[in-house]
Amino acid sequence: MPERARKPRQLQLLLGASSLSIVVAYALVFERYIPNASGHLGHDYSYFLLQLLDGYFWSHGNGYFSVPWNTPGFCGGVPKFSNPQALYFSVPQLLTQFVDPLSSVRLTFVLFGGLGYLGFFLLLRRVFSASPPAAILGATLFLFNGLFASRMLIGHLTFHSFMLVPFLSLALDERPSAANAPQRSFEARCLDVALAALIFAYMAMTALAHVLFQAIAIVITLALLSGLVREDLYPWRIFAVKLAIAGGTAIGITAAKLVAVAHLLEQFPRTLYVLPGIESPAKLVSILILSLFSTPPLDWVHETVVNARWGVGYHEFEFGVTSVPFFLIFVTVFLARSQWATSAKWKTMSGEKRACLAALVLLLLAPLALNFYQVGWNAFLKEIPILANSSSLFRWFSVYIPIVCLVASLCLDHGPLLSRHRTAVAIVGVLIVIALNLTRDRSYYERQRFDPNPVIGAYARVRSGAWSPRVDRIAVARDAAGGEALLRYRNASLARGESQLLCYETLFGFRLENFPRGPLREGDVMQEVDGVLNLKNPACHAYPEVNGCAPGDHFTSAQTTEAAALAAYRPYDFEWPAIQRAGNTTSLLASSGVLLTLLVCGSRRLGNLVRRGS
Hints:
There is one protein chain. This protein is mainly alpha-helical. It folds into 2 domains: 3-33 and 81-439, no CATH class; 34-80 and 441-575, no CATH class. The chain contains 25 helices and 10 strands. The longest helix is centred in the last third of the chain and has 36 residues, at 578-613. The chain is globular and about 85 Å long.
């Protein structure tokens, strides 16, 4: 092999080995909390791990690709597909076809962590032309971001799709071409759009309220940064077209889900909670900075946040990328301040770049504005449809995570002093990031007490054929005195074949404020009293008008067959409104179109590469 060819191959092997070592170190740092030393998980796995078990119960008897419109597993029967937090069509649920729910969570954690690392590395290399050391450091910073780690540790499984954001940006951004290099082909752009559409759709299916809208803001922000740092003009028209087509296609793919969610939220709007915020702009910025580069003291956060209906958790302010990027940015700004002040580039900045800078500043101010508290402003935010269903908007701080990681990488490549020692600085930076995460106090997660063993046991019984999943009883959580109580881990009754009457389901409010309990009671689900069974008809929750019922209605004695089917995790007949049928058809057609695009454009792209290589 010629010497010139050997060196790139050696570099690729070195980059691959280094990256693999970093991801392995990441897994070793965090997987000891899934479960923790006492064998327990974060408290919100009492919701999501049971959701995975519930999904497995459905797929076991109906096949994974059968849509679970309803489930008997919680609250005496609820809609499942139309629940915004349902994770049925997701990687964690798919993995339960092969491993138990706890193992699925562990695999999801490592898999999406690795994808986030790879995506950010490629984004830095291909879009921002970063050097290998800067790309590795930036990817490491993004991998160890506090949002993904903390939310996965506490049990917010919907946040796993956040790690796909780099791939989304990579697909939509038009890469700068090298001198005399051809522009991206039509087939390549088709594949870009198809990939972006699938990621958008995945986020809508798994994290509609938690990740999707922040991801859109991040993609636009990164495009603005790309426009600022590029020497040539940014192809905004191409970016806008790709974003519009990908977004429209994603809406088509998820039309069935979006229509179903809209119908359900129309019956059970999540507008009952006030939005917390911070009154002092200085304290708001301080909390943001501490959240990104350290951890704000929780007591101080509690004192600073106003208008909060619920206590703020430790994990809700974990966005940290460690102090390493702060150091890199500070050193670069300090050393280059005089150079920038006299630089002709700032004085001769084009109108397009000035517009990019202005739009970038506005976008970066948006998460701060959403969490600034003033009575009139807060009331206005509560009128905006998407925001009105939230109980907190602090998750919007996640927009800053990839921005900080990217800027730190660019500082390493272009800073006056750092660029001369970028390899050494990158190595030290990666080691510091790992060391800081390894030694960080995470006693909060060690104190979590949700026991996953009943879920694993129920999964094993079904998997071995020892038990056919079904719900026979309605259970009621009770305190030591025997009274009904909203116990933290009450949903675990599903592992015993029981549907928890006082279920933990945020669709009805954290305290079940909107739950239409009606005649639901503890006891056998097929027990009949006054002409109704002890099981709710979930179709009445989502589509009451076309089914001639009201939200919360039970199956009647004339619907024994339908009730028995639901209790045994089998489909039953109910009516859809015309718009839901149209949404179902649209999803089928759009999904088929994307698969066909991937097949045709992918094969043509592969053929072009083969011909070019030969």
